[in-house]
Write a structure and sequence with these properties.
This protein is of the alpha+beta class. The chain contains twelve helices and nine strands. The longest helix has 31 residues. The protein binds glycine.
């Protein structure tokens, strides 16, 4: 199933296609530039809805669904090395603002995941799915077992670090329940998600948003300021992870859309993907970061020395540096960004309409980086001659 199909099945199911008759308003992805003083960039599907969860603004709908562009750079050094870290990803989400809660969200997720492909679902065999709940969330555990029918041995309990979701900054938060897909024994040891998160891949996170988090603390312990005005649902299903599973590839860099960029990078440097482990990592970094850079520019970010501009500049420099190490001796950005627009344009038409501007900014940034690098090389040569 290609990425566009995964996306459209998601939206259709929540808009008007589930057996609970819970219609959701389809909300287009917001800009990556977060309208939130605590965040540089949108890093989760719920970010545009934060004022609704907090009760600061009355939502114009009680249920919504979206496929939100996200950028996370916290784990940037893991990109390319693991099967599942990306700096750019698309988060499919369904949201309830004081409407359905745990049982509704759990039943919706199970229905879409397990509904046969020819009936509009993703066709997962029930026997391959495991779930986790927050340590003392007996209610969620009971719904999974008694209402949905998941065997007790495939329901695991985890603590704050894994099953209590917050944005990492002040805002709405709550205990969560995650759904995992067992990829099989060739991927690791058995024992469920608590034993091995490479074999058991997290596909969907259901957050029972009911508290307001304060500043500070750690992932395991942070101040809870109080309850939200209503009990809400925020879920996140990573489109790229889902695509990797449904397309039978090992990692998110080899799915239909990202592979187009990766293939362009291999053709520029004339090497074969899969032949050398460290070259593969560099190629995956190039594919991931090029996509992030294209989307940041499309949303109005320009390379700079601080904030979002610095995130973009860093992405571009890492692309250029990795391509040079792989053997590129000519400018690469034009071809790579063009391949990104080709891969993502069908789902994001604004990339096509804004193509010239995106290319111009990206190419200028490459020239700047090249000048900077030759300046450093000349300065170093002069230093050595002294
Ligand atoms: N907001 C839920 C998630 O990003 O997993």
């Amino acid at each position: 199933m290609n990425s566009a199909e995964i996306r459209s099945r998601w939206l259709k199911f929540f808009e008007n296609g589930n057996s609970q008759g819970l219609t959701h308003t389809v909300v287009p992805s917001a800009s990556l530039v977060a309208d939130d003083p605590n965040l540089l960039l949108v890093n989760a599907g719920m970010v545009p809805f934060k004022p609704y969860f907090l009760g600061e603004i009355k939502p114009p709908f009680v249920r919504a669904t979206s496929v939100q562009k996200c950028v996370r750079t916290l784990d940037i050094d893991e990109v390319g090395k693991t099967t599942r870290h990306a700096s750019f990803f698309q988060m499919c989400g369904n949201f309830s603002f004081g409407d359905y809660f745990k049982e509704g969200a759990i039943k919706l997720a199970w229905e879409l995941l397990t509904k046969p492909v020819d009936k509009g679902g993703y066709g997962f065999p029930e026997s391959k799915l495991w779930v986790t709940v927050f340590q003392n969330d007996d209610e969620a555990a009971e719904i999974w077992h008694k209402v949905v029918g998941v065997p007790k041995e495939r329901i695991q309990r985890r603590g704050m670090a894994d099953n209590f979701w917050s944005m990492g900054v002040p805002g709405p938060c709550g205990p969560c329940s995650e759904i995992y897909y067992d990829r099989g024994e060739q991927y690791g040891k058995e024992g469920g998600p608590i034993a091995d998160e490479d074999r058991y891949l997290e596909v969907w996170n259901l957050v029972f948003m009911q508290y307001n988090r304060g500043e500070g603390g750690t992932k395991e312990k942070f101040p809870i300021l109080g309850e939200l005005p209503a009990k809400n649902i925020d879920t996140g299903m990573g489109l790229e992870r889902m695509a990797a599973i449904l397309q039978g590839v090992d990692n998110i860099y080899e799915i239909d859309t990202t592979k187009i960029i990766l293939d362009k990078a291999t053709s520029i440097v004339g090497i074969k993907y899969g032949a050398d482990k460290s070259a593969d990592i560099r190629l995956r970094v190039v594919a991931d970061h090029t996509r992030t850079a294209a989307f940041l520019i499309a949303d109005g970010v320009i390379p700079g020395n601080e904030g979002r501009g610095y995130v973009l500049r860093r992405m571009m420099r890492r692309v250029i540096r990795n391509m040079r190490i792989l053997g590129a001796d000519k400018p690469v950005i034009k071809d790579l960004i063009e391949s990104t627009i080709k891969a993502m344009g069908p789902q994001y038409p604004e990339l096509n309409t804004d193509k010239n501007r995106i290319l111009e900014i990206a190419i200028r940034s490459e020239e700047h980086t090249s000048e900077l690098q030759s300046h450093v090389r000349i300065s170093y040569a002069v230093f050595c001659l002294k």
